[in-house]
Design a protein that fits this description.
2 copies of one chain form a homodimer. Helices cover about 45% and strands about 15% of the residues of chain A. Chain A contains 15 helices and 12 strands. The structure holds a DNA duplex (16 and 16 nucleotides). Chains A, B: Pfam families: LacI, Peripla_BP_3.
DNA sequence: TTGAAAGCGCTAACAG
DNA sequence: CTGTTAGCGCTTTCAA
């Protein structure tokens, strides 16, 4: 049988190429061709230093000319290492995750890992299913904006390597984009521009960042004697922003801070449609600085979040977990990434006409929306 | 040894939970607990119809309470099926691919497949490496805007399942976004608006779509007696668009058609900075209708491409290859997706002042750019 | 430094 | 319908 392979190959390819045409060569084919044991070929690839340089050289070159490539699956079975990472996002549709994916993919690629991408469609159910299906197929997970409960997250952490993004669940290591400082800057920016009454368009109820942002906003409001009204929770989408814009007008504020840029873009769209001038009548501050925030109209003042860095950090943190730690190991230092305010054209001094006056100005359109 | 596991489990967990704490249960643990052969447990999961409903029921419920999940790697080794697909894109950074990824992910998820995502960084080298590394770890590949040569693509196709997007390489099955009809519409739209002199900002040299678009443009130009000037090849990025905008002005045209929206957005940005009114002085037509095309300023007239559909189709086509066909099987029908022109605010009637006059108008800024 | 042998966890004939 | 028996292709002791 092995003889047959050999003969065929010799006849077909003088240079000595693939043995049995159609079948991908295995470690044994290479071993046979080299006159060494299979285990030696294995070592030549996975532990090159433990094999004689001369033999290694020969094995490698013969393998190359046979078109041999180690089978990653077969490799993973005994070793338990797949060199693959799972990245779960709640909604690929959201450009925020594009940047996250990008950062994660790059960090993974740099480390020689491959990324498995899954969309959990905003449900903890799907998330659980995917995690279960992928466990064993990946060396670890990055869960971005997970919808799982703290308890479930801890369970998962107990049986596999895990990093969460935008979530703080001890002892699961996490990457947090800290919008607090940025939010504070934003609020003070608005206060300095003379805004006294601000609306906050809230994100999904379960969002850690949303809670923090709202708390910060309230704190600044107290200090600077502003009044902030919370509108939401809202889906983090352009459509929700469009819808919420009417509530903004109704609430008679001179500035809006939104949970994310998608909402802000929706607000901009709707305000423009209603003839409300931004930033003349209303100032808008977004969050994240996603693709598009700089070329929408007007260009958006927003909290620039290091999203790509977050993706990169999450993968790096996950990878660092592989060095010695057991699953469920003692807590690691969380990575906290700062945000900063990027001022563009959607914010300006509050209209000199007070809120009440401007409310009158807009009486027509407002009632029209009813 | 098996007895030990059993005893432990019984002692630790009255309900009969995981055997050896810390070790994930295997098919054998479940089999032992159920008093059946391992192969029966295997069948209960992979071929439920070939096992007695009662036994299956018992196995499934015991497995569930033991927290057993089939190990995907171990499953893949003998079966050769990983239920995983590889998606390779040249540049995750490009939002075009976000939509493609989205469509592919959805189609894959629907079919119960998982997506492995890789960025080839625009190099055929990286692409080859990734393909080699992933071969065997995925059931097939979708290569989007591949940078591989036709020959290499055929080679890959000979040893694994493969679908290309935006590429026509017989006999490799492909999904093509046919911008020809859309481009024709765009050109005629401009012609009807009175534009006589049009610039085309070309994309990467190797792009199949770019070649087709340019040809179509020339054809229409001949028919409608327009003159078109080709600028490029250009990287398909906002930055390249910014840079090319100056060339556009210099070429003294009244309309620009760009290879993609990123270029168009860059042109818009630069033109605005230079005080050239769009669409008053110059009309701009993009291509693809990516996220942002509808809210940039002014909202972009563009060829709406069914990008997400393309991703979905590519995966569906790939999956269809699994039904019976051998790798390297006879050619399949390519999927051709049409584009259509979406008219927004970046196009308008050509300025009544002829090209020459308007060139004079802009003499200052033009020379300033020199 | 190299070889032989025993699996990794599961699937897939083939009997029964 | 279920059990037995071989592997899938590779890694990994353990000896030599």
């Amino acid at each position: 049988m092995p003889t047959r392979d050999r003969d065929r190959a010799q006849r077909a390819e003088p240079a000595g190429d693939s043995p049995d045409p159609g079948r991908t060569p295995t470690i044994h084919d290479v071993a046979a061709r080299c006159g060494v044991a299979a285990s030696t070929v294995s070592r030549a690839f996975s532990r090159p230093e433990r094999v004689n340089p001369a033999t290694r050289q020969r094995i490698l070159s013969i393998a190359a000319q046979m078109g041999y490539h180690p089978n990653p699956i077969a490799r993973a079975l005994p070793s338990g290492r797949t060199r693959t990472l799972g990245l779960l996002v709640p909604d690929i549709t959201n450009p925020f995750f594009l940047d996250l994916i990008r950062g994660a993919e790059r960090a993974a690629a740099t480390a020689g890992y491959t990324l498995v991408l899954a969309d959990t469609e905003e449900t903890s159910q799907q998330e659980t299913t995917v995690v279960d299906r992928l466990t064993g197929a990946v060396d670890g997970f990055v869960l971005a904006s997970s919808r799982l409960s703290d308890a479930r997250l801890r369970e998962v952490y107990a049986k596999t390597r895990l990093v969460v993004v935008n979530r703080r669940v001890r002892p699961v290591p996490g990457v947090l984009i800290d919008s607090a400082t940025g939010t504070r800057q934003a609020a003070e920016h608005l206060a300095s521009l003379g805004h006294r009454r601000i609306a906050y368009l809230a994100g999904p109820r379960a969002s850690w960042s949303d809670a923090r942002r709202w708390r910060t906003l309230q704190a600044v409001a107290r200090q600077r004697d502003l009044s902030v009204v919370r509108i939401g929770p809202l889906a983090p989408t352009v459509e929700a922003g469009v819808a919420a814009a009417d509530a903004v007008v109704l609430n008679d504020v001179t500035a809006v801070v939104t949970f994310n840029d998608l909402l802000a873009i929706g607000v901009l769209r709707r305000l423009r449609a209603r003839g409300v001038d931004v930033p003349g009548q209303v100032s808008v501050v977004g969050c994240d600085d996603i693709f598009g925030a700089d070329f929408c109209h007007p260009p958006l003042t927003t909290l620039t979040a290091p999203i790509e860095s977050a993706g990169r950090s999450a993968v790096d943190l996950l990878l660092s977990l592989f060095d010695g730690d057991e699953p469920g190991a003692p807590p690691r230092q969380d990575v906290v990434l700062p945000t900063r305010l990027t001022i563009r054209d959607s914010t300006a001094v509050a209209p000199t006409t007070g809120p009440d006056r401007s409310a009158q100005d807009r009486a027509g359109p407002v009632s029209a929306a009813h």
